[in-house]
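Thread: quick sanity check before group meeting

JM: Hey all, I'm pulling together slides for Thursday and realized we never actually wrote out the predicted structure for the chain we discussed last week. Dropping the sequence here so it's in one place. If anyone has concerns about the input, flag it before I start.
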Amino acid sequence: MAERTIRLNGKQVSSPYRSVGTGEGQASEQLLYWLRERHGQHGPRFGCGVSQCGACTVLVDGSPVRSCTRQLHTVPDHAEVRTLDGLRAHPLQRAFVEVQAGQCAFCVNGMVMGVLGWLETRIARGNRAVPSDDEIKDFLSGALPESDDNYICRCGTHVRIVRAVSLAAKEMLR
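JM (edit): ok, ran it. Output follows.
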């Protein structure tokens, strides 16, 4: 079995993973299952399995990644992987709770982790403006140039999700 070493939520972890073939014909298990089954990460969830809903989103080196389709051999050794499990009282988490943005909460992992990567990237690039409601909606629908991934909430709490993102962005930008 192949082995991968990453920094998971700030801590170095290593474990084997299933892989077959080599080179362009190589295939390996998905990052989602490796994180959940070998490292006890329960934030990222299996939703659709085809990168459409966002429930499995994690950050790999700061970028939102759909872990349900990302094969582990394509994640660089020593990459920084962040999951919802590693956040502790983050402004996004607090805002989602405060405005009750998650009805069933199945989508919350994807929403929080995707938005976190987006907001941190904006801030790192010097954009200190709180995103407008339209920008937040465009990000969540995949309509922004910097992200073509959409995030789906089947319960229809999008109005509260937008409110939570705006509230958290204001706190993150203080």
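AS: nice. The domain at 2-86 is CATH 3.10.20.30 (Ubiquitin-like (UB roll)). The beta strands are 2-8, 11-17, 19-20, 27-28, 57-60, 63-66, 80-82.
JM: adding both to the slides.
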